[in-house]
Amino acid sequence: MKNPYQDKHKGHNLNSTPQREVLMREIQRLLDEGLITVVGEYEGQPVYLPTQPANGPLVQKRLKSVLEGTSKK
Description:
Helices cover about 45% and strands about 20% of the residues. The protein is α+β, with helices and mostly antiparallel strands.
């Protein structure tokens, strides 16, 4: 059975447990650093936005690097 999420988002299968755990750790770091905040909920999942518009590119770069497996640890 195809994963509909994977098809919509450039092949990133966020249902794979190890990758999801790494992504959630990075999201927690971004929250702890004050770069993002929870602004609501969608289908039972939190919705995050950068705390300042200028943080957007940094947040995007960090999450993308985690998804691609190139994040600095």
